[in-house]
Specification:
By secondary structure, the chain is of the alpha+beta class. The chain has three helices and seven strands; from the N terminus they run E-H-E-E-E-H-E-E-E-H. Strands 1, 2, 3, 4, 5, 6 and 7 form a seven-stranded antiparallel beta sheet that branches.
Length: 140
């Protein structure tokens, strides 16, 4: 079943291919959901968290945990909403640093998977190339 969001942006920031079949890319994206890393930044420790949602009913997004197993419920094409959150960890409190939201469409092209990325809004310090690096890293 195709899972397409009818309001996917018409203006694409980046179009690229992953040299992996569609099912493998789906598995990579599912593994990235609700993960986090901690890195040392200029101001201290920064927690980077990734949340992934998938299109549901053409009008909304659904948490990936609510659609398991993903490979049995998705075919041909899928739209995702990826939320990358950065939080500064201090001894007293947690301070939000930035939030980057991307729309990602993946399309089955046989041995490769076509990917389209569009960033929602102008806020945040990441761009479509950063998401591409994350996807390539997760799938290799």
């Amino acid at each position: 079943m195709r899972r397409i969001y009818h309001r996917f942006p018409q203006s694409i920031d980046l179009d690229f291919e992953l040299a992996r079949p569609f099912r493998e890319v789906l598995a990579c994206i599912a593994r990235m959901h609700d993960t986090h890393t901690t890195v040392r930044g200029a101001d201290g420790l920064v927690k980077e968290r990734m949340l992934v949602q998938i299109a549901d009913g053409r009008t909304q997004f659904l948490d990936l945990n609510d659609l398991a197993p993903l490979a049995e419920k998705v075919a041909e094409a899928a739209d995702f909403r990826i939320d990358l959150q950065r939080t500064l960890l201090t001894p007293e409190k947690r301070l939000p640093v930035s939030e980057n939201v991307f729309f990602l469409r993946i399309v089955d092209k046989g041995a490769v998977t076509e990917c389209y990325v569009a960033k929602e809004g102008r806020l945040g310090d990441l761009d479509a190339m950063d998401l591409r690096k994350m996807l390539k890293g997760a799938c290799e």
